[in-house]
Amino acid sequence: MSEFFDSIVGKILRWILFFPLGLVVILVVKLLIYAVRYDSWSKYMIEYIPTHCLANGGAFCAAVITVYIVVPHFKMKVAIIFALLFGLFYLASIILPFFLSDSLNLEYISFLPSNGDMGQISVIGYLSSIVGSIIGIAQCDDFSTT
Description:
It is a single chain. The protein has 6 helices and 2 strands. The protein is an all-alpha fold. The chain has one domain (2-145). It starts with a helix and ends with a helix. 27% of the residues are buried.
């Protein structure tokens, strides 16, 4: 099997699949963490925050490491670019509604996660995703030296 992944076709396949595979890893890790560490957050939102931060940070850390492992060449550069794409997207999602004059956009921004509105942007979740990406890059650097 490793002979196939080291062949030309295997390397092309790895270049094609690294981004979708990173997205799948984000989804699967979030679902696993939410399933394993489910907090009863209907009473107090403070009980839900650790799970939310752990799910977002852990998912992006795992995705960056997965991208690093899957890509055949320029591993660290691609992992950093993958993390930067999502980091810039999340920062833009947090900052852009403040520059848009429509008050409708501002009602979807919250520092804490909400269990009511699925379209709401959770600043703490996005920030934990960025931190998870940075931790993932640091782990890739440690992973490459061993």
